[in-house]
Structure formats: structure tokens, C-alpha cells
Design goal:
- There is one protein chain.
- Strands 9-8-7-10-11-12-17-21-20 form a nine-stranded mixed β-sheet, with helices on both faces. The chain has a six-stranded mixed β-sheet with strand order 3-4-2-1-5-6, with helices on both faces. The protein has a two-stranded parallel ribbon with strand order 13-16.
- The chain is α/β, with parallel strands linked by helices.
- It is elongated, with a radius of gyration of 34 Å.
- Helices cover 47% and strands 15% of the residues.
- Helix 12 links the parallel strand 7 and strand 8.
- It has three domains: 125 residues, no CATH class; 114 residues, Rossmann fold (3-Layer(aba) Sandwich), CATH 3.40.50.720; 265 residues, NAD(P)-binding Rossmann-like Domain (Rossmann fold).
């Protein structure tokens, strides 16, 4: 049976201790043999090996991996050699007062030992990092690396070790790095020089290794790479990488999220956890994109029970199976309930069976053009479904009820916007009646969510186009799914009841720009390889969305990414009778009357041409 690597390293280091001891004596006497007291030097070898071996173990010299030997490992060797020399000197002084031992040996020994222990380790790493292959059939990929920092150095080291890649150089904007060399790979220029460097060095791919880049910097880098006509790959944050070949495995294609993504959001997970752990949490609309991500994040906070509610059987099954796999130890009971928030009996049974303490209401119809044609269904689900669930939460003394709203509820011109605005009114009106705190969180579009533009654009690009955009100047607010849900949890933890929290959406993005960037990321050129076709605004669509009503004032909260929509006190008596009439119209199935009543409640006038509505202004009642 072959010895283990650890055993081989121990034997190697003990042998080197004996060799360094004898070599020091030999060097002291000008490399002549036999030298003075050579028998004494040999007799002391067992003592040297025992004491030096003990120091090795004290400094854990065998835990280091030679393949990744570095400066900290070398410093550890220096400390072990120095302490070993002192221990050996002290032992010899106690035993025989150092008689016959030249004092220079005590200086030469640790110096020789440091070389004997360090050189093999660093040499082994050098050979592994610059492994030579004799396979003439191996195709080497030429790589230009953007970013000469820690991440870039890791990438180059792995490429040299792997052997399939040839780093032609670095690109970095820092002036002090110009013409510097990292792992013997030169910094060739700054980001603006990428197109010229692509023509000169002809890399096969460009790897962007700048994990700290913000959205603006990432857009600039990608634009220069596109000008160079070279495919791009992206290295994620260092926290997502592990040592070894996995670094190369983490390199992925640049996605639209990287260009429209936002700065990293810091959340107060202590406060969020305190509000959810050891509590029964229910999420309606759990099968949708927002609801599913909320469930993922809530599950990590160790609630007593997580109740998933959705009317879509497949959506519910999908998220339920995913969460069961994530929580393999079954620490948190995860219950999937197939049901409709518009079904009073189902909602009542749900509340009695599970007694949720916190409810996140994400269930809603959200597709603007479809809801323009199905006004009754939109009102039943978005308005009266929210009212039914809110009343049930109040009746069963839930601690918190969190409504997920949308920027389309601000000065609405669509059925979706008007119904979500009324859902906000319903929740606000329930606050303060008892212990249940009703909180609303409002935000814009989520990248890649169900029914959003991005999956549609991806499908159209895959088919070769055209990519359809409603208007060249239409803009929307975008944020990532995980960020939106994290901020929802943060707002829920902060709320005292009655607030409308508005998430910081950053700057609005032109949807046409979004389409252009998605086309470019595939290596195609907009307008040449894939056309962009403008189809005109659809019924219920705005050119630009808003986050605050005219009667609302933006207020600050304890979190920089969460604002408060300050508004006058709501007069619920002005809405109660109008909503009761809206309910009767829904029961009667009169779509035309439903639409007219909806606009009336929200202070809107139906357009003569159909579909949408013109926002004249909220009267005092609707202004809250």
C-alpha cells in the first residue's frame, strides 16, 4: 500500500531537517571531509529530527497544500526553522554546554532549512501553474482579461495551470498598472484600448474579471468589447469562487442582468430574521416569480412553517419541489395549498388550518394588455381577492399583512394599475382596526419575471427577430428579483402599519436600449443582423412609469433603498359604498359598467377609443 501524501510530506520535511543540519556542518568546514567533530554532528541528527519535527507539528506545516504554496506558507516555514534552531540550541546547551558545536552552525542551519523546505513547495507550485503539455492536438484559446486585480490574477493562474488557455494580456484603467506584469502576463492598456487590442492580438474571448464593477462601469466595458467584435465572458464575485479549477468553471456569459443590475444592497438580516423566524409565514401567489423568490428567501430565515398558496397547480408544484430539495433536512415544514384567494371558503379554511402570523400577498393578475380585455377578472382577483385575504388576516389576528404592489398603481391608465391602486386603498383602510399591521410595498418591473419583456426578447432573438418594442422612447424601471424580494422583507420588518413603501428603482431604462443590448450580447448587431420593430403602445400602457402620486411626498426611511410615500389620511367612507357597487357589477357580469365604475372610483375618464384611460387627477377621496 502506497503511503499517503501527508506521510510523504512529513518524511520529506524530517529528511530535510537532517540534511540541513549536516550540510551546515559541511559548509562550515569548507566542504571538506572528514571535518572536525563530524561524529558529533551525526550523533545529534536524532535530536534535531525530534525537536524540529515537534516544531513542524506545532506550526501545522502539513496542512498547507503544495499546489497553492504562497507567501504565508513561506513565512510559516521561516518561523518553524527559527524556533527549531533555538530549541536545538537550548537542548544542546542543557546537555553538554554546546561543546564541540561551532556557533556559526546555529545560524547556518535555519537558513539552509528554510531553503530546503521552501524551494520544493514553490517549485512544485511553479511546475503545476506552468504545466507544459506535449499534446500537439490541443487547441489553445487566446484570452484577453479585463481587470488586473485579485480576480484577474486568479483567472490567469488557473489558465496557465489548465493549459487550454493562453492569456494574451490584461486590460486595466489604473495608470500605475500600465505595462506591469502579473504572473508574467503584461497589462496592455486601459478599457478604451480594447477594440485596438482585439485587432492587434486577436483574442478568441474576453474575460471580464472585475467583480467590483458597478452598472455604469460594466456597460462601458461591454460596449468596448462589442466594438472589438470579440465574445465576452464574465467572472462573478470572488465570494462565489473557490480555489482550483472551479475558478474557470465559474466563468459565464454576460447577461442583461449584469448591464441593468444595480449596486449591491445591504440588508439588515438581523431585523428581518427576528420578524420571521419561529413564525408561520404564508405567501400567496407562491408559484409566480416574485412569490417564489420570496419563499426561497423566507425559508432561509427558519420560520416555524412556510405555507405556499397558488391557484396554478404547476407553479405550486414547481416551487414546492424546489424548496423541499433546498431544505433537505426538513427543518421547516413546507405546506403547498392549491387555492384561490377569491374563494371565501378556501381562504377561511386556510386561515383556520395554518394560523399564519405573517402574510405576503403576491397573488395578482399582472399582464396589462390581457387585463384590458378582462376587466371583471382583474377586479375580482386584484381588488376583491386582496380585500378577502386582508379581512381574513384581520379576523384571525395575523401580525402583519404585506401587499405587493406595482408602479402601475401610480396615476394609473390601465385596468391593472387601477385595480392595484384599489388594492392599496383596501389594505390601508384595514390598518389600525386591530393588532394586524397592513403594509404595502410598491416597485417596478423585475428582470426576467413571468410575463416581462426579457423572456419575450430572448425568444425573438433566438428566432432571428424581429424584436418588438412598443415605442422608441418607452422607459421602465427594472430591478433584479432577488433584490426586490430582499427589500420587500426589509420593508415588512420596518413597517409599523399603514405605510406605503416604495423601493428605490434607480434610473428608468429605455426598453429599446434593453433590446439592443440583448441583441449585442448574442454577438449580433441591432438593425443589421436582427431588426427592432416598433409596434406602438398597447392598450393601458404608459410611455413612462412613475413611483409616486402627485399627492404623495417622498420620505426617507432607515434604509437608503426604501422610501416612504407620505400621503393624507385615507377616508374609507368615500370608498366603501363605491366598492360595494363595483362588487355588485362584477356579480352581474356587466364588463362595460365595471370599467366605468372602476374609472369613477379612481377619478379617471375612459378613453373614447377604448382600452385605456386618461388620468385627469385624483379627487380628494382617491388622494387618500
Amino acid at each position: 500500500m502506497l503511503p499517503s501524501k501527508r506521510t510523504i510530506i512529513i518524511l520529506h520535511d524530517l529528511f530535510m531537517a537532517a540534511f540541513a543540519w549536516q550540510f551546515s556542518w559541511w559548509a562550515r568546514f569548507n566542504f571538506e571531509f572528514p571535518f572536525q567533530d563530524w561524529r558529533l554532528s551525526v550523533m545529534l541528527i536524532p535530536l534535531v529530527m525530534v525537536l524540529q519535527g515537534g516544531v513542524y507539528f506545532a506550526f501545522r506545516l502539513y496542512r498547507g497544500i503544495w499546489r497553492f504554496a504562497s507567501i504565508p506558507d513561506l513565512l510559516n516555514i521561516v518561523r518553524a526553522a527559527a524556533l527549531g534552531a533555538m530549541s536545538i540550541s537550548l537542548a544542546m546547551f542543557i546537555l553538554f554546554r554546546l561543546e564541540g558545536v561551532p556557533r556559526s552552525i546555529l545560524i547556518l542551519y535555519p537558513m539552509v532549512l528554510i531553503f530546503c523546505l521552501g524551494a520544493p513547495r514553490l517549485g512544485y507550485r511553479f511546475l503545476r501553474d506552468r504545466r507544459v503539455t506535449f499534446d500537439t492536438n490541443t487547441v489553445t484559446t487566446r484570452v484577453l482579461i479585463v481587470g488586473a486585480g485579485r480576480a484577474g490574477e486568479m483567472v490567469v493562474r488557473e489558465m496557465l495551470r489548465d493549459g487550454r488557455y493562453f492569456p494574451v494580456g490584461f486590460v486595466d484603467d489604473k495608470p500605475e498598472l500600465r505595462k506591469a506584469e502579473i504572473q508574467r502576463v503584461r497589462v496592455l492598456g486601459d478599457v478604451d484600448a480594447i477594440p485596438a487590442l482585439c485587432r492587434e492580438h486577436r483574442p478568441d474571448i474576453i474575460v471580464i474579471a472585475v467583480p467590483s464593477a458597478d452598472t455604469g462601469q460594466m456597460r462601458r466595458i461591454v460596449e468596448r468589447c462589442e466594438e472589438g467584435g470579440t465574445p465576452m465572458r464574465l467572472l462573478p464575485g470572488l465570494s462565489k469562487m473557490v480555489a482550483g479549477a472551479a475558478v474557470l468553471n465559474e466563468i459565464r456569459e454576460v447577461s442583461i442582468n449584469d448591464l441593468l443590475g444595480r449596486e449591491k444592497v445591504e440588508l439588515d438580516w438581523g431585523t428581518i430574521t427576528a420578524g420571521l423566524e419561529r413564525k408561520t409565514v404564508m405567501v400567496s401567489g407562491a408559484g409566480g416569480s416574485i412569490g417564489a423568490e420570496l419563499c426561497r428567501q423566507i425559508l432561509r430565515l427558519a420560520p416555524t412553517r412556510l405555507v405556499l398558496v397558488d391557484r396554478s397547480e404547476f407553479g405550486l408544484y414547481r416551487i414546492h419541489q424546489e424548496l423541499l430539495q433546498e431544505d433537505a433536512s426538513r427543518r421547516t415544514p413546507i405546506v403547498a395549498v392549491l387555492g384561490d384567494v377569491c374563494d371565501a371558503v378556501a381562504v377561511q379554511q386556510l386561515m383556520l388550518a395554518h394560523r399564519p402570523q405573517v402574510v405576503f400577498h403576491a397573488a395578482a393578475y399582472k399582464h396589462v394588455p390581457i387585463l384590458e380585455e378582462h376587466c371583471r377578472e382583474a377586479v375580482l382577483n386584484n381588488v376583491f381577492g386582496s380585500q378577502l385575504l386582508a379581512d381574513a388576516a384581520h379576523a384571525h389576528a395575523c401580525e402583519r399583512f404585506v401587499l405587493i404592489s406595482t408602479d402601475k398603481a401610480v396615476n394609473p391608465v390601465s385596468i391593472l394599475g387601477a385595480t392595484k391602486r384599489l388594492a392599496e386603498v383596501v389594505c390601508e383602510s384595514r390598518n389600525g382596526r386591530d393588532r394586524t399591521r397592513f403594509i404595502t410595498v410598491r416597485f417596478g418591473n423585475v428582470l426576467g419575471s413571468d410575463g416581462s419583456a426579457i423572456p419575450l426578447f430572448q425568444s425573438q432573438i433566438k428566432q432571428g427577430g424581429p424584436v418588438t418594442v412598443t415605442h422608441p422612447d418607452v422607459t421602465r424601471y427594472f430591478m433584479t428579483n432577488s433584490e426586490a424580494c430582499g427589500l420587500i422583507l426589509q420593508a415588512a420588518a420596518m413597517g409599523n402599519g399603514g405605510e406605503i413603501f416604495v423601493l428605490d428603482m434607480g434610473n428608468a431604462v429605455r426598453v429599446a436600449y434593453l433590446a439592443e443590448q440583448m441583441i449585442r450580447l448574442t454577438g449580433a448587431v441591432p438593425g443589421r443582423d436582427i431588426q427592432i420593430q416598433f409596434t406602438g403602445l398597447r392598450a393601458g400602457e404608459k410611455l413612462n412609469e412613475e413611483l409616486f402620486h402627485d399627492f404623495e411626498q417622498r420620505g426617507q426611511t432607515a434604509h437608503p433603498k426604501i422610501f416612504l410615500a407620505r400621503h393624507p389620511q385615507l377616508d374609507w367612507s368615500r370608498y366603501e359604498g363605491e366598492l360595494a357597487r363595483l362588487r355588485r357589477l362584477c356579480d352581474a357580469g356587466d364588463a362595460v359598467a365595471i370599467r366605468a365604475q372602476l374609472w369613477h372610483i379612481c377619478g379617471l375618464t375612459p378613453e373614447v377609443t377604448g382600452g385605456g384611460a386618461i388620468n385627469e387627477r385624483y379627487p380628494p377621496a382617491c388622494a387618500g
